[in-house]
Design goal:
Number of helices: 4
Shape: elongated
Structural class: mainly alpha
Helix content: 55-70%
Oligomer: single chain
Number of domains: 1
Largest sheet: none
Length: 125
């Protein structure tokens, strides 16, 4: 499996197996980051905590969040492409509850388009 392509490219198509592998990587990265914050004693801080530690956690979480969103959206976009839809369908996640369920069903459960589509060849072929 080409991990660089899976986690960074917004082009092409992936099947459900690779989608779930990408989701697992994102979850593992998030868990490792939470463990790192806990180890450094930066978890559970609020605005009343020491300002420097609060700022360090906030800034690192912002940068980390951007990286994780980039990876997740790359995986989602390729899976939407496999379903014959644009990656912009990821915005359905904005709709509370229904959006997340829709993404779970469309990307994680339903089969992709058979044969080539406008986004590339069938990843199972």
């Amino acid at each position: 499996m080409d991990w660089k392509y899976l986690l960074t490219s917004y082009k092409g198509r992936i099947n459900r197996t690779k989608f779930w592998a990408g989701v697992a990587v994102v979850m593992a990265i998030m868990g490792a980051y939470a463990a790192l914050l806990r180890t450094l004693g930066l978890n559970g801080l609020d605005a009343s905590s020491h300002f420097t530690r609060f700022l360090a956690r906030s800034a690192s979480t912002f940068v980390f969040g951007l990286a994780v969103y980039y990876i997740a959206l790359a995986v989602f976009a390729k899976r939407w492409h496999d379903r014959g839809k644009t990656g912009w369908w990821s915005l359905i996640a904005i709709v509370p509850v229904i959006g997340c369920v829709w993404i779970l069903v469309e990307l994680g459960i339903l089969e992709g388009d058979r044969g080539a589509n406008q986004y590339g060849p069938d990843p199972l072929a």
